[in-house]
Amino acid sequence: MKKKVLAVLLAAAMVLSMAACGAKGGDAEKSDGGDSAEGGESKGYSFEIIVKSFQSTYWQAAVQGIEKACSELGVTANSNGPANESDIADQVQMLDDAIEKKPDGIGLAACDTNSVLDSLSKALEAGIPVVCFDTGVDNAPEGSVHATVATDNVSAGATAAENMFPVIEEKIKAATTSDQVRIGEVNQDATALNIQQRGQGFIDKMLELCTGAGKKVAVVGNEFYVNATEGAVAEAEAEVIIEVGVPAQTTVDLASTEAQKIMSKDDTIAIFGSNQTTAEGVITANQTLNKLATDPEKGIIGAGFDAGTPQKEAINNGQFIGSVTQSPLMMGYECIYTLAKICDGESVEDIPMEGYWYNTENMDADDIAPNLYD
Amino acid sequence: MANKKAFGKIKGREAMVLGIIIVMVVLFSLLSPTFRTYPTLVSVLDNSYYIALMALGVTFPLITGGVDLSIGTGLVSYALIGGYLIIHQGTSVAVGIIACIGIGVLIGVFNGALIALMDLPPFLATLCTCMITRGLGPALCGGFGVSWPSAISETGAFRKIFKFVTADGTVVPIGIIFILVLVVIMSFVLNHTKVGRYTIAIGSNKEATRLAGVNVKFYHMLAYIISGLFAGLAGVAYAATYATIYPGSGAGFELDAIGGAIVGGVSASGGVGTIFGTFLGVLVICLMKVGLPFIGLQANWQQIFTGIVLIVAVLVDVVKKKK
How many domains does chain B have? Predict the structure, then answer.
């Protein structure tokens, strides 16, 4: 008897909490609608936006941009995304559900560029235009994706190398095969296209700059990046070594171990963390090593990517010389504008977004600050 | 007499694990000159705090013959909610920490109720709470990651429990003292209090324990509450060490803790285990997590290697028992 009563009570508690959550969701949607009614001429389009996850605060800025564009245009957008960037199947399901709702358009940041192909065909059949943002889908069915709003990751990675090189130039010029210098890079993984391009963009640009300074470069570490790099020499013949670390899982603790492994070596002069997690890994490793500095004579030069409180503090404290930010806010914003243009019957094209270098000097500038989420 | 024998066996296990730790340290030090430095030692300890806390707690359900799979996603979820209260709701850090631990205890109560009172299999019940906690944090906090106050800010003072930096920049990993104190306390609880003795008794023979007049349901439930409490503490430790909490992460953390406990001699079928053994087992896991990258093993091989070491550790136990 007792057991049954308890079972009923627990069941009731669950139903109540579900109802509470449901009510909360409803309120949020309503307030979205309210916002859009206030802004300018109402076009009344409704869009479904699928982001990669809400795992990093990066997407918070994207949603800000989406909401800003919605209120300016008088349209509504419902944002959704899986719990984790690796929950590929969940995202495909969300995309299919979004298509079922028959919105005026869909904005998509795909977790896995191959898994969404079937759904994109469905959207094409249903006549729903899709705009990809953040990540492009290269082999999308003809006509399904109308435009892509994405950071050019190769050039964003290169931006980090271009800004790091002048600081360590003297050290690189002084390097010899018997007295090598090491530049580290920590990448979150070797599978996602944007991380691959960004990591490779940094390596290729650094290799080009070092070669320009008359030095030979070797790339060591993670097999993917070692094999993908062209123009590198064997470790023994090189004056400059680029060491690439990739953690076994995408957590800050494992990323920090990879960073620590590289930063512990005596010949390391610089290190680059190519996204928020790995940049924080570098910062965490430095908490015990205390080696990062803005002067190459005093320590290791550090640079990061994206934002977040720890990284912004590292720049203000002189641990990082600077970082590259994408503009998630502008990508979300442009995505909604592009979708609205398609609905208005205007022609649209891809919008490549730059990576912006930021440091203590321009962190508060109007065009940079909104992207530097906490 | 039988008791004494069991006791002796466990001691032998602990000595063996200690031997494994020494062999690993020597091996990694020989293979990587940068491994045998003070910062690397600190890093191993940093890595161990949250895993050790989870493992101390999960040892209790394991000894009852159950398991708690909700601790990994749980700790992330609790730390996320605590951080959200501090950063976005403007509460004090103390409130955030209490919330983090408190929600852990609540989930422990929930697990305990499902398993001890409603007879759900522990694997199934905690698998469900694992899913619930995975979604709970992001659902309550708007789905975004959150960074706890940094060590340099005034409100970040709680981080000094785990890592103290002296004026000349030397890092003192005092978190290990905190962990060792808890190891001593929980060892006492497991071996010298009713709670501990009944936990072991439930794992050895639940029916006999019930017939002996013990309130089995209460003590069985308590094992999961202890596990939840320590998952909450682990959440605080994780936030103190790594600052930013990412929603959706944490799946797999529990395996490090459970793996550590098993390596340390806790029997997967219940009834046997020590807190000190669990602690040593966690050190083995953490040494591998930090050491394998240092000797140049790449990501995929690290995971394969860790799996193989776990199999060997359990196999040694099985072979020994058969003898």
Answer: 1
